[in-house]
Amino acid sequence: MIFDASTLPEGELSVDLCVVGSGAGGAMVAMVAAEAGMRVVVLEAGEFVTPDDMTQREEQMLPKLYWEGGGRTSVDRQVHIHQGKGVGGSTLHNLNLCKRIDPGLLATWHRDRALTHLPLETWDKLYREVETLLSVSEVPAELRNRSNQLLQTACERLGWKWAALSHNRTGCVGSGFCALGCAFDGKNNAAKVILPRAIRAGAQILTRCQAITVEHDGERVTGVLARAIHAQTGRAFGRVRIKAPMVCLSASATGTAALLIRSRIPDPGGETGQSLRIHPAVVAAGEFAEPVNAWQGIPQTVECTELLDISGQAPHKKASRLWIVPAFGHPAATATLLPGHGGEHRRWMGRYSHLSVLTAMLHDHSRGQVRPDGETGLRIQYQPDTDDQKELLAGLRACAELLFASGATRVCIPTEAPIVLQSPNEIQKLDALQWRPGLMQLSAVHPMGSVPMGDDPTIAAVSSQGRHHHMRGLWVADGSLFPTSIGGPPQLSIYALGLHVGRALVSSR
Fold this sequence. Notes:
Elements: E1 2-4, E2 11-14, E3 17-20, H1 24-35, E4 40-43, H2 58-65, E5 79-81, E6 97-98, H3 103-112, H4 120-133, E7 136-138, H5 146-158, E8 162-164, E9 166-168, H6 190-200, E10 204-207, E11 209-216, E12 221-229, E13 236-243, E14 246-249, H7 252-262, E15 281-287, E16 302-304, E17 322-326, H8 331-335, H9 342-350, E18 355-362, E19 369-373, E20 377-381, H10 386-405, E21 410-413, E22 419-421, E23 442-444, E24 474-476, H11 491-507
Parallel strand pairs: 1-10, 2-13, 3-4, 3-14, 4-10, 5-23, 14-24
Antiparallel strand pairs: 6-9, 7-9, 8-16, 11-12, 12-13, 15-18, 15-21, 17-18, 19-20, 21-22
Helix pairs in contact: 1-6, 1-11, 4-11, 5-10
């Protein structure tokens, strides 16, 4: 059953397992545990949003599906960090990209972090199970919209590597509104596939219920203290106490780290909240003579991997950690990136149907920090280091090259003073750019790595089974566990980790 905590009286509930967060990781843990006969409650700070509720309007859906209405930023406001909420977490609004982590990177993790319980063959088995469960398949060529076709064309003309992407969707009508939730229920996400199984097995979900602290006696957990969230004001009120001998945090790489720190969970290695990766991204917009209508169809079906070398073996390349995909925005989001004011800005928006946008996401080495802020908030600090700055600037250049190669008549780079390139011959102007705070706003949709797993308890806080080394009964199952950034979409791997952690949790009883 699903209950709205904001409509319930204050109280106490006793269960076998409390899961904090209902996204890919938490949903998997809840499903596995409930189907194993455990009494499970899932706490979700967001609301229960059904396909019928998804109006495809930005001003209505952003507050429902995103933390801080899509306005979450780093402390210095230089990075927008988009994170989802609601029953299903970020799987409600994400674009359904499913890609495995590079095997070479997994092998590096296994070696460097002593991941005894996650050898390559275990990852492969988990991936195959999740791909079957979510009906993951490659998007066929006939369903690639014009914006994605343009990226494919550019790669072929430049001789750059590209590939078709795989998604977890069935019954897709190509509405193009994936980032605002799917009104047609075409996403095979946590809310559609995983949580219904958990509920059928007896799991309960408390919506508008934000965890405040993990309660413990210094050695083992005793439950979770949470607050209800007022439906209109968004303010926390009342108190809900969940008594449970087992707690699993799946509140995202920001929320989980903040909860651990606020709860004073021991971490002798000091890594918790100190190693946040986010895949910071830059964008460039191209204008085309013919309409692109990039809002129509599946948003991301083609990737460019020419400048992505996860293994670090690429010879003599100026950039080797960039993953490039189309990234078109809906009108309000696009308006914030286009140059000019008044009439000039209106002219750009008048060409909305002729625009196509590319984003270069960085497999970042920089480490950000997460800290709790008051009872319910958190603070994110993130600054790309010198090497990452160079890669991001190279990403701007690469996006411009690809846009012109696909036929763009001009390219807009949304720096602080926007740069408009009128021809491919002007791309060299970008070589003179020097990174500085405020040069351009970065965006990020893949926070990860804030509680990196490892089987050495003197270094890592959490094991390769998701079990906390220093607090009995405490588990973690989300992107926090990644030891580094991964250079691609994380949802498939978070589902896989949720399945893995859920089984380890059940076996530990």
